[in-house]
UniProtKB/TrEMBL annotation:
<keyword id="KW-1003">Cell membrane</keyword>
<comment type="similarity">
    <text>Belongs to the binding-protein-dependent transport system permease family.</text>
</comment>
<dbReference type="InterPro" id="IPR000515">
    <property type="entry name" value="MetI-like"/>
</dbReference>
<feature type="transmembrane region" description="Helical">
    <location>
        <begin position="98"/>
        <end position="116"/>
    </location>
</feature>
<protein>
    <submittedName>
        <fullName>Amino acid ABC transporter permease</fullName>
    </submittedName>
</protein>
<keyword id="KW-0812">Transmembrane</keyword>
<feature type="domain" description="ABC transmembrane type-1">
    <location>
        <begin position="19"/>
        <end position="220"/>
    </location>
</feature>
<dbReference type="Pfam" id="PF00528">
    <property type="entry name" value="BPD_transp_1"/>
</dbReference>
<dbReference type="InterPro" id="IPR043429">
    <property type="entry name" value="ArtM/GltK/GlnP/TcyL/YhdX-like"/>
</dbReference>
<dbReference type="InterPro" id="IPR035906">
    <property type="entry name" value="MetI-like_sf"/>
</dbReference>
<keyword id="KW-1133">Transmembrane helix</keyword>
<keyword id="KW-0472">Membrane</keyword>
<dbReference type="InterPro" id="IPR010065">
    <property type="entry name" value="AA_ABC_transptr_permease_3TM"/>
</dbReference>
<feature type="transmembrane region" description="Helical">
    <location>
        <begin position="201"/>
        <end position="223"/>
    </location>
</feature>
<keyword id="KW-0813">Transport</keyword>
<feature type="transmembrane region" description="Helical">
    <location>
        <begin position="20"/>
        <end position="43"/>
    </location>
</feature>
Length: 236
């Protein structure tokens, strides 16, 4: 078997067209997952009555089951629930008009939220409780103490873990091909099938994934360096 190097370049150019969709599938869930994770982390850290058990169950389920199952459950389950609601209310809305990508984004956001909640919670726990007490002693309320003392330190310490999960979700987007989303891996399959050159196509896809991962790492490095410089400057 001889590797067709010219076809790697041809495949690279075709597969690269899927980069925008892949980045959307990786970044949007991390953004929404951050806010979900922040809420869940605070509920679990401060043991909010009525929500603590729900938050624990959410994290346990989404961390204890594979992401591909989350996509399938959302992809097949949400339309059934929506159809039931639509029919009961006699609405004219059609669930098949909802873009499939929205189901994927919802599933990945919920998955990201579970993992990010643990990252954020560990960051919060790493900040000495005495710092919050000191903030109260100088007249800060809880909101001010969290926003100016607790969260900045917790997030700075969590940046390496945020980077890891961001790169992980970049790679995780490959399972979206199972519900007909033509991200990098899906496009690589299509390109490879046209010429039956799977090795070359996946070499090209691997180079793109690698390049994107390096960019993510570089952005993380810059953010972490600036965040550490800012934190050395004291309270904002």
């Amino acid at each position: 078997m001889v590797i067709d190097f010219p076809f790697i370049w041809v495949a690279f150019k075709e597969i690269a067209k899927a980069i925008p969709l892949t980045l959307m599938l990786a970044i949007v869930p991390i953004v929404f997952g951050f806010f979900i994770g922040l809420a869940v982390a605070l509920i679990r850290e401060y043991k909010v009555k009525g929500l603590y058990s729900v938050a624990n169950g959410y994290v346990s389920f989404f961390r204890g089951t594979p992401a591909i199952m989350h996509i399938m459950l959302i992809y097949y389950g949400v339309p059934l629930v929506l159809d039931g609601i639509v029919n009961s209310l006699n609405l004219s809305f059609q669930t098949n008009s909802i873009p499939i990508v929205l189901y994927v984004l919802l599933a990945l956001s919920l998955t990201a939220g579970a993992y990010l909640s643990e990252i954020i919670r560990s960051g919060i726990s790493s900040v000495a409780k005495g710092q919050m007490e000191a903030a109260y002693s100088i007249g800060m309320n809880t909101f001010q103490a969290m926003g100016r003392i607790l969260f900045p330190q917790a997030l700075v310490k969590s940046i390496p873990n945020f980077t890891n999960i961001s790169i992980g979700f970049l790679h995780l987007t490959s399972i979206a091909f199972l519900v007909s989303q033509k991200e990098l891996t899906g496009t690589a399959n299509i390109v490879a099938s046209s010429k039956l050159k799977f090795l070359e196509a996946f070499i090209a896809a691997g180079l793109i994934y690698w390049g994107l991962s390096i960019i993510f790492e570089g952005i993380s490095y810059v953010i972490e360096r600036k965040a550490k410089q800012y934190s050395k400057g004291g309270v904002a």
